[in-house]
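User: I'm preparing a small set of examples for a lab meeting where we compare how different chains pack in three dimensions. I only have the primary sequence for this one, and I'd like the structure in token form so I can line it up with the others. Please keep the answer compact; I'll paste it straight into my notes.
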Amino acid sequence: MRSEIDHSKYRVRDVLAVNLPFFMSEEDVIGRAKEQVPQRYHDQTWILNSQIMESALGVPSDSEEAVIVVLDKNGNLISQVHGKVTAARMSEITNALQSLASD
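Assistant: Understood. Below is the structure token output for the 103-residue chain.
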């Protein structure tokens, strides 16, 4: 997806939401998360230790599924897909992005 969109038109961000165990510091969690995220995407990845975003998007905090959301420039939810990325789900996201490009 990243290679197929015009980055001057869209802001791509990854969010890793972590339920912080009581025995780990936020720095430790961020360090471990960065081991899983390719270095070229470190500046595009936000690591959160609260459920604020899950609550706002209606994602169960114990969900292990990936969620892709498309928000417009005002923060309105345009599209949201959960689970394994399939051709149909990618098509939905691509269509949502294209609809924003025409605005």
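A couple of notes for your slides: The helical segments are 26-36, 52-57, 87-101. The radius of gyration is 15 Å.

User: Perfect, thanks.
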